[in-house]
Design brief:
The structure is a single chain. This protein is of the alpha+beta class and 151 residues long. The protein has one domain: 3-Layer(aba) Sandwich (Trna Endonuclease, Chain: A, domain 1), CATH 3.40.1350. The protein has 6 helices and 7 strands, in the order ααββββαβαββαα. The strands form 2 sheets. The chain has a 4-stranded mixed beta sheet with strand order 3-4-6-7. A hairpin with a 2-residue loop joins strand 1 and strand 2. Helix 2 crosses helix 5. The two termini are 29 Å apart.
Length: 151
């Protein structure tokens, strides 16, 4: 999947406000079927002070990779399928950990509770897939949409 945005799109999103970036992220995650986090070993990148830290998440590798500088050396972007994302979000919701949606090095980011993040992605998925297909995605089955229009 991993469709990377062009430079013009990247620059536009970097200048966008936190809400616009989050709205973009939800749609792209549903469209592409993956989200991106930063990992170092088994650790996920967290933003914010201890006790109130948020898991950083992006819709494309390019945005996650931009974050790997100034103290983030050694962290690597990692793709999460919809199934892996759902598992992560379920665990974060149990621990009451929120997500920093599409953070940028300079500027603010939207903080969304894990359960709400899933609901936003699910809303976008429902515009692409029916409920049975979404269940398959959550179960880890890849789905390919084929246009079968007759001539």
């Amino acid at each position: 999947m991993s469709h990377e945005p062009g430079e013009k799109k990247i620059q536009g999103l970097l200048r966008a406000d936190a809400t616009k970036r989050a709205e973009h992220a939800f749609g792209v995650i549903a469209d592409e079927g993956e989200a991106w986090v930063l990992t170092s070993g088994d650790d996920l990148a967290l933003l914010g002070p201890a006790g109130n830290a948020h898991v950083a998440i992006w819709p494309a590798e390019a945005f996650a990779r931009m974050f790997v500088r100034d103290g983030w050396e050694g962290w690597e972007p990692q793709a999460l399928s919809i199934s892996e994302l759902k598992d992560l979000l379920d665990g974060l919701a149990e621990e009451q950990v929120s997500l920093a949606v599409m953070p940028v090095l300079e500027g603010s980011h939207l903080v969304v509770p894990a359960a709400d993040f899933w609901e936003e992605v699910l809303e976008e998925l429902r515009q692409i897939y029916d409920e049975d297909e979404i269940e398959l995605l959550v179960a880890g089955v890849e789905i390919e949409i084929v246009d079968v229009r007759s001539e």
